[in-house]
Write a structure and sequence with these properties.
By secondary structure, this protein is of the alpha+beta class. It is built from 16 helices and 17 strands.
Length: 474
């Protein structure tokens, strides 16, 4: 800046020298402004950067993943083979088995106080029959003490390590099963969320259970019995099971995301935990810019804790409520007095299910941004078949059956962590006011010697010129 002042004010310099330095100054200012605008645009377009936490998180500070297990068999043959076409039960069976049927003919049939959820509960395999052996952290545990029945989009399934409904939902639903109904249940339900974690004071035995250690022996092993001879209809084109690993405060959706488990095989799921954290400084950035929501920024209708999956589940509930004036049994009741869909709604449900991705539903889900604090589990599965000869397994449960029965009906599933520690991903501001001023000031200072003093000089020069003009005019 001093060079430019000297060149302009020195009348002894030739004109071409003044022109040369004036052109150079203009080019340098143009480059400096262009670079400064580039920094601003980058800060405006990507205000949040995701980095890796400098500290390791032990797996015993987070819950073991919630696990839902479903039998692909939607109905037990022994329970439904007596149903006759034209009856309400037959209509419910067709819906359970995903059969194409004209349900309008059943709308005027009188009900016998049997609702669709109760029908599914009656014809589905119970958890005590499906999951026949459970071992967690090398301890044999009665499966009925750690698995509870839950309604999901695959029907009646079994769930492990899910947050107790008292902590998860804002009001009680008639179809939320009690997780502590067993007299032998030793674990005490506690609250947990990704921001505050577990309470400071914990009982000796509680759930959601935390991770214990790495390796198969420190994880969960279950033995599943498919009871193939009692198959009636399958949710897929084969026999077997579906499992899903997820955050204990999330709404499980098995139909599209469930992972297959084959009968006659041992399937192991290596669990890779990944958590997301966010610094409080990004709260000042608009949610559409940072693309995540803090749990207190969006209140859900039925869930106490915000997650993207819970928000999308409520969008589906509102969609069905708007189209059919009822909510399917596997979705959250967004209003305590909302009706659960039954036979009279089946025709409307079929139509609505084909329109679930319409504009209004998509607009609702577009507002369901990712949680700024979240916990996700990525399962890495590998499968090995049982021996084709005599099956020799460590579990004492296998001793009660022949090798043919084991290969045709049973499956062993292992869930375990691969590491004792993991690193969280941290969302932080890409540049704050200090960093932005430092970057911009560095460029401007390098190019044209710009400084805060120079701004004061410009203001002084403008005021001086205006004063002189005023004096000349008057």
């Amino acid at each position: 800046m001093e060079v430019l002042k000297y060149v302009i004010s020195d009348s002894n310099l030739p004109w071409w020298t003044k022109l040369y330095f004036t052109i150079i100054f203009a080019l340098v200012v143009l480059v400096a402004v262009n670079l400064a605008v580039g920094i601003y645009n980058k800060w405006d377009s990507t205000p949040v950067i995701i980095g890796i936490s400098s500290t390791m998180t032990p797996i015993n500070k987070i819950p073991f993943p919630a696990i839902t297990v479903c039998n692909m068999n939607q109905a037990k043959k022994s329970k439904v083979q007596h149903l006759k076409p034209g009856s309400v039960g037959y209509a419910m069976l067709q819906k359970t088995c995903y059969k194409e049927t004209n349900y309008s003919q059943y709308m005027d049939i009188q009900h016998k106080n049997e609702t669709f959820p109760n029908f599914i509960l009656d014809i589905s395999e119970k958890c005590s029959d499906l999951i026949v052996s459970c071992t967690f952290n090398q301890q044999k545990i009665p499966c009925t003490d750690i698995f509870r029945e839950i309604f999901v989009d695959e029907g009646l399934c079994c769930i492990f390590n899910f947050l107790h409904p008292y902590y998860l939902y804002k009001f009680k639903s008639p179809y939320i099963r009690d997780y502590t109904s067993s007299d032998r249940f030793a674990d005490i339900a506690v609250d947990w969320d990704p921001i505050t974690g577990y309470p400071q004071r914990l009982p000796s035995s509680y759930y959601p259970r935390p991770g214990v250690g790495a390796g198969i022996t420190m994880g969960l092993q279950i033995i599943l019995n498919g009871h193939v001879n009692d198959y009636f209809c399958s949710s897929t084109n084969g026999q077997g099971f579906k499992v899903l690993l997820y955050n204990p405060i999330d709404q499980p959706r098995l139909k599209e995301s469930g992972l297959p488990v084959m009968i006659g095989h041992q399937t192991s799921f290596r669990i890779i935990a990944r958590s997301f954290e966010a610094l409080p400084t990004i709260r000042n950035i608009h949610r559409t810019k940072r693309q995540c929501l803090f749990s207190d920024e969006k209140e859900l209708l039925s869930y106490r804790y915000y997650t993207r999956r819970n928000c999308e589940a409520e969008c589906d509930s509102l969609f069905f409520l708007r189209h059919c004036n009822c909510i399917p049994y596997y979705l959250p009741l967004v209003y305590p007095n909302a009706s659960v869909c039954d036979v009279v709604h089946f025709e409307c449900l079929n139509s609505a299910e084909s329109q679930i991705f319409d504009v209004m539903s998509s607009q609702c889900k577009d507002l369901c941004l990712t949680s700024c604090h979240d916990l996700i589990f990525f399962p890495d599965a590998f499968t090995t078949p049982f021996s084709q000869k005599d099956v020799k397994a460590q579990s004492s449960y296998f001793k009660n059956f022949s090798s043919d029965y084991i290969r045709n009906n049973l499956a062993v599933v292992n869930f375990f962590h691969t590491d004792n520690y993991f690193r969280s991903s941290v969302r932080s501001a890409y540049t704050g006011p200090t960093e932005y001023m430092a970057l911009t000031g560095g460029i401007m200072g390098l190019m044209i010697g710009f400084s805060v003093i120079f701004i004061a000089e410009i203001i002084y020069l403008i005021l001086f010129i205006l004063t002189m003009l005023i004096l000349v005019m008057f």
